[in-house]
Every structure is written in structure tokens, then in C-alpha cells.
């Protein structure tokens, strides 16, 4: 697994040669609330497991996810499962409308 502190766009992940491998992506999401325009942010742990992943890899990823979240003591983040890039693109509007907390 590659750990990066650099900001990587969703588009770059789509072009990645390993895009059909499951991975955990931890990011801090800054956004403005639609209701009052205030700037706020949220930590997200994205569980990326696209549809093209082999069954064995998908099962290993699913069973490892619980162990990873348990090992991150004190880390409070919203855990979101995504299988397609459109699901990631939909996160910002959902945060801005207050649908995700």
C-alpha cells in the first residue's frame, strides 16, 4: 500500500494502473454548508473497492477493514464505502446539504 500526504484528485485515481485494487483512502474534506455558508471540515475514511476487483481480494479487503479501523484508536472519521468514482463525486454535495455527518 502506498501512503501519500499529497492531495490526489479522483481523476488521477481513475488513471492509476492499480485502480482495480481495493484500498483505504483517508482524507480531510473542507466544504461550505449550503444552509449558512460556514466553512467546515470532516475526516473521511473511504473504503474503495471497485466492481472489477477479484472475489478473493474483495473478501480479504472486507475482513481487513474491521481490523484497520480497530487499530486506529482515537481516530474519528466517517467511514464511506465506494465502488464507483461517481459515488466519490457525490460526497461533497451530500456534505454541503448536511446529509452526512
Walk me through this protein's architecture:
With 101 residues, the chain is α+β, with helices and mostly antiparallel strands. It is built from 4 helices and 3 strands, in the order H-E-E-H-E-H-H. The chain has helices spanning 10-15, 55-71, 85-89, 91-96; strands at 23-32, 39-48, 78-82. A 3-stranded mixed sheet has the order 1-2-3. The longest helix is centred in the middle third of the chain and has 17 residues, at 55-71.
In short:
Helix content is 34%, strand content 25%.
What summary fits the major beta sheet? Answer: 3 strands, mixed
Provide the helix percentage.
25-40%
Approximate strand percentage: 15-25%
* Gap from first CA to last CA: 28 Å
Number of separate helices = 4
Q: Give me the oligomer status.
A: single chain
Average pLDDT for all residues: 79
Computed Rg = 14 Å
Sheet/helix structural class: alpha+beta
Spatial order of strands in the largest sheet: 1-2-3
What coarse outline follows from CA principal-axis ratios?
flat
Poorly predicted spans = 1-7
* Strands, total number: 3
- Topology order in helix (H) and strand (E) letters: HEEHEHH
Amino acid at each position: 500500500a502506498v501512503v501519500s500526504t499529497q492531495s490526489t484528485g479522483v481523476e488521477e485515481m481513475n488513471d492509476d494502473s492499480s485502480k482495480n485494487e481495493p484500498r483505504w483512502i483517508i482524507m480531510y474534506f473542507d466544504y461550505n454548508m449550503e444552509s449558512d455558508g460556514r466553512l467546515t471540515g470532516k475526516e473521511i475514511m473511504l473504503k474503495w473497492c471497485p466492481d472489477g476487483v477479484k472475489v478473493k481480494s474483495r473478501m480479504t479487503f472486507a475482513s481487513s477493514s474491521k481490523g484497520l479501523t480497530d487499530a486506529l484508536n482515537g481516530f474519528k472519521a466517517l467511514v464511506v464505502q465506494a465502488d464507483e468514482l461517481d459515488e466519490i463525486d457525490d460526497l461533497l454535495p451530500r456534505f454541503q446539504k448536511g446529509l452526512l455527518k
